[in-house]
Amino acid sequence: DAGVIQSPRHEVTEMGQEVTLRCKPISGHNSLFWYRQTMMRGLELLIYFNNNVPIDDSGMPEDRFSAKMPNASFSTLKIQPSEPRDSAVYFCASRRDLGTEAFFGQGTRLTVV
Amino acid sequence: GEDVEQSLFLSVREGDSSVINCTYTDSSSTYLYWYKQEPGAGLQLLTYIFSNMDMKQDQRLTVLLNKKDKHLSLRIADTQTGDSAIYFCAENGNDYKLSFGAGTTVTVRA
């Protein structure tokens, strides 16, 4: 398996634009997580899904952020409109079952200017 | 994350032992993890411990768990330059949530 695949690896966008980050989890994994990493806040859990259903989105910072998982092999994290303070590395992770190892993607480095 | 706390920086001399500490809040946590992040990469699992264990040893790594105090530590014996990275503690609650600490940046000096 190729592991968790995130795209794009880097994204530079202007303030106010819509940004969509994509994630393909490992086949057979039931849980998917979106994290944001910044120097100031470390690694924050934004939202996680189990069997494609969002379980907890309390980490999503504002209504400008939304995430979907239309099927077991794809998830998106959308920011609309984007702001400079959204600049961070966004990670997607997946795992097979509760308690098992979570595998991380390489991350998307987002820069909003 | 606010549920898991760890110190931010650790500097250690090559060949010495490193000890990274972590505290967590969810008493129902079933698994506790240590992940390693190298520059420009995602996180990779180093080791984990089940909540009914006190200690786990894996080559140069020793994990100690004090469930009463909700304290977890990672000891790296004979620290090498390749051990320089950010180390994350994580807890797994019963509701599938996987929460990480802010990460401890370990710098190994010659």
What percent strand of chain A?
A: over 45%
Low-confidence stretches of chain B: none
Greatest interface (CB-CB under 8 A), with counts per chain: A-B, 24 and 22 residues
- What is the arithmetic mean of pLDDT of chain A? 94
SSE order of chain A, as H and E? Answer: EEEEEEEEEEE
Helix content of chain B: under 10%
Distinct helical segment count of chain A: 0
Contiguous helical run count of chain B: 0
Q: Strand percentage of chain B, roughly?
A: over 45%
Biggest sheet features of chain A? 7 strands, mixed
Distance from N terminus to C terminus of chain B (CA atoms, Å) equals: 32 Å
What is the approximate shape of chain B? globular
Write down how many β-strands of chain B occur, each being a DSSP E stretch of 2 or more residues: 11
Overall radius of gyration of chain A: 13 Å
Task: Offer a quick outline of the entry.
The model of chain A has no long low-confidence stretch (mean pLDDT 94).
Sum up the structure in keywords:
heterodimer, A: 113 residues, mainly beta, seven-stranded mixed sheet, four-stranded antiparallel sheet, 11 strands, 0% helix, globular, B: 110 residues, five-stranded antiparallel sheet, 57% strand
Descriptive overview:
Helix content of chain A is 0%, strand content 55%. In chain A, a hairpin with a 7-residue loop joins strand 9 and strand 10. Chain A has 113 residues and is an all-beta fold. Chain B has 110 residues and is mainly β. In chain B, a hairpin with a 2-residue loop joins strand 6 and strand 7. Chain B is globular, with a radius of gyration of 13 Å. The model of chain B has no long low-confidence stretch (mean pLDDT 91). At the A-B interface, strand 4, strand 5 and strand 9 of A face strand 5 and strand 10 of B.
